Amino acid sequence: MIKFDELIETLEEVKLNEKVLDSKDLIIYNDDVNTFEHVIESLIEICNHSSIQAEQCTWIIHHNGKCGVKRGDLKKLKPMVEAFSERGISAEIEG
User: From the CB of residue 22, how many other CB atoms can be counted at a distance below 10 Å?
Assistant: First the structure.
């Protein structure tokens, strides 16, 4: 017989697994147009990154050609992708 506490624990694990499976990545791509300052400022304003986090992501974008800057569900990430696009920054959702 399953105990109530075990059932609650199992339901919590299922909900957590669903969130992980539903998670997507917002990817920013490197280009030869946007300045470091513009990308950093955009990451701070759109993704609520700290200045250090935004600068680190920008360096990763510069050296690797892309960087996952935010993780979440499609509903949360879609407006962010649109905001980056409006600023001329290439972004898409993967996953």
Answer: 12
pLDDT, the chain, mean: 89
Strands 24-29 and 91-94 turn out to be antiparallel
CATH level 3 topology of 23-94: Ribosomal Protein L30; Chain: A, (3.30.1390)
Q: What is the pLDDT of residues 35-81, one digit of tens each?
A: 999 999 999 999 999 999 999 999 999 999 999 999 999 999 999 99
